[in-house]
Inverse folding.
C-alpha cells in the first residue's frame, strides 16, 4: 500500500484568498457576460470561478474544466486572459459551452439582431412548419406536442426553419441558443405553459439580453492581457484525455476547476421536465446535437447501485486521467455535494488518493470541524426528487494536488 504525504498548506495571496472564500458563500444570482445563455443544472456561480482563477493562476496559464457543463469556468478563464480547455460527454453541454465562449464580431451582432427582428412575423401559428421528421422519429419531441405544449413546439419548428438564413455557423449557433434559452423558460419544470405570443415576446427580450452579454464578453476577451487563445470545448469523456492530440503540446493546467457528477444525487442533466415529471429531449433537437443516452451516462452510473460501486470506478478512471495531465504546480479545486457525506465523502477522498491526487489542506478557510470549506445552497433544484434543504444542498470545496509519490514523474512531462 502506498502512503501519500499531504502537501503543506498552499500559499496564496491572503486578500485574493479572502475574496475566493467570500465568493464560495455568495448567493447572488448568476449574471454577467454569457452566463445566462442557458441554465445548466447544478452550475456554480461565475463569481466562484472568477475568484478561483484570479487567486490560483496568472494570465497565460491553462485552466481546465473536465466536466465543463455550461462552460462557466471557460467563459471566465478566457475573459481573464487564461487558456481555457473543457470536456464533457454531453453534446448539449458542448454546444452551450462553445456558444458561450465564442466572441461575436460587430457584423455577427448586426446580422443576428436583424434576423431576430424579422423572425417574429414568421412565427404565426397559421403557417405550416417544416416538421423535424428525423428528430421526431427518434423521440426528441416527446411530451411537447400535447394540448398545451404544441404551440411552443410549432413555434420552435417555425423558428428553426429560418436558422439557415444566417450566413455563418457562429451566428446560427447563437440564434439556436436564444431559442434554447426561451424554450427552457417556457417548458422546463413548468406546469403552466405560456402562450405562443408570450414565447415570441420572451424570445425578443432574450435576443437583446444575450447580444448585450456577448458584446460584454467579447470586449473582455479583446482587452485581456495577454490575449488568450480560443477556448477548446471537447465533446468527449475525460477518461483517456491524456491521449487526446489537442493536448499533446500544451503545458499542464495550472488550475483544474470543476464540479463533477455528485455521488448519489440525481440531477437531470440531459432532459427537461414538462408539466410535472414528463421528460423531453427537446433541448438536443433545438441545439442540433444528438443525445441517445440515459441519465446514468451523465452521472457516473445509477445512484441506486449498492455502495455506488459504478460511480466510484468511473471517478477513479476520470481522475487518474486528470492526474496524468497535471504536474506538481497543478491545483485541483472541486465543488462537490453528496446524498450521504458520512460515508460518500471518505470514499471519494480514497478514490482521489488512488488516482494519484492528495488532498491539499487550506486550513485558513475551514468552515467546519472537518477542516474543509462547506457552503449551503438554499432552494437548490435538482430536477428530480431531492429539493430544498436535503443533505445534497450542502456542497464542499475540495483542494487536491498530485500525490508526492507522483510529483517526480510529473516533472518529466514536456
Amino acid at each position: 500500500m502506498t502512503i501519500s504525504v499531504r502537501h503543506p498548506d498552499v500559499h496564496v495571496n491572503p486578500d485574493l484568498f479572502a475574496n475566493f472564500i467570500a465568493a464560495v458563500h455568495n448567493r447572488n444570482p448568476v449574471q454577467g457576460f454569457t452566463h445566462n445563455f442557458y441554465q445548466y443544472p447544478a452550475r456554480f456561480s461565475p463569481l466562484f470561478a472568477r475568484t478561483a482563477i484570479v487567486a490560483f493562476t496568472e494570465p497565460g496559464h491553462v485552466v481546465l474544466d473536465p466536466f465543463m457543463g455550461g462552460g462557466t469556468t471557460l467563459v471566465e478563464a478566457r475573459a481573464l486572459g487564461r487558456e481555457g480547455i473543457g470536456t464533457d460527454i454531453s453534446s448539449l453541454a458542448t454546444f452551450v459551452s462553445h456558444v458561450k465562449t465564442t466572441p461575436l464580431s460587430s457584423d455577427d451582432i448586426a446580422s443576428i439582431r436583424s434576423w431576430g427582428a424579422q423572425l417574429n412575423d414568421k412565427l404565426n401559428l397559421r403557417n405550416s412548419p417544416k416538421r423535424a421528421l428525423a428528430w421526431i422519429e427518434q423521440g426528441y419531441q416527446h411530451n411537447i406536442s400535447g394540448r398545451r405544449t404544441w404551440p411552443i413546439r410549432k413555434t420552435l419548428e417555425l423558428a428553426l426553419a429560418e436558422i439557415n438564413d444566417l450566413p455563418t455557423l457562429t451566428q446560427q449557433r447563437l440564434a439556436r441558443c436564444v431559442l434554447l434559452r426561451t424554450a427552457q423558460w417556457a417548458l422546463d419544470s413548468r406546469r403552466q405553459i405560456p402562450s405562443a405570443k408570450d414565447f415570441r415576446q420572451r424570445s425578443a427580450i432574450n435576443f437583446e439580453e444575450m447580444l448585450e452579454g456577448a458584446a460584454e464578453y467579447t470586449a473582455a476577451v479583446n482587452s485581456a492581457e495577454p490575449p488568450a487563445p480560443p477556448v477548446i470545448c471537447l465533446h468527449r469523456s475525460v477518461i483517456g484525455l491524456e491521449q487526446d492530440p489537442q493536448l499533446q503540446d500544451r503545458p499542464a493546467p495550472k488550475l483544474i476547476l470543476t464540479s463533477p457528477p455528485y455521488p448519489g444525487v440525481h440531477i437531470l442533466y440531459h432532459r427537461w421536465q414538462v408539466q410535472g415529471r414528463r421528460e423531453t429531449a427537446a433541448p438536443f433537437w433545438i441545439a442540433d446535437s444528438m443525445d441517445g443516452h440515459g441519465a446514468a451516462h451523465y452521472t457516473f452510473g445509477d445512484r441506486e447501485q449498492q455502495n455506488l460501486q459504478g460511480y466510484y470506478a468511473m471517478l477513479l478512471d476520470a481522475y487518474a486521467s486528470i492526474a496524468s495531465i497535471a504536474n506538481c504546480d497543478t491545483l485541483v479545486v472541486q465543488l462537490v455535494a453528496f446524498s450521504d457525506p458520512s460515508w460518500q465523502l471518505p470514499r471519494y477522498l480514497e478514490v482521489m488518493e488512488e488516482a494519484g491526487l492528495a488532498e491539499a489542506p487550506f486550513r485558513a478557510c475551514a468552515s467546519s470541524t472537518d477542516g474543509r470549506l462547506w457552503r449551503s445552497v438554499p432552494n437548490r433544484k435538482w430536477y428530480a426528487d431531492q429539493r430544498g434543504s436535503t443533505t445534497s444542498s450542502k456542497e464542499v470545496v475540495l483542494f487536491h494536488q498530485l500525490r508526492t509519490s507522483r510529483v517526480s514523474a510529473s516533472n518529466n512531462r514536456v
Summary: Residues 14-92+229-279+293-410 form a domain with the Rossmann fold fold (CATH 3.40.50.150).
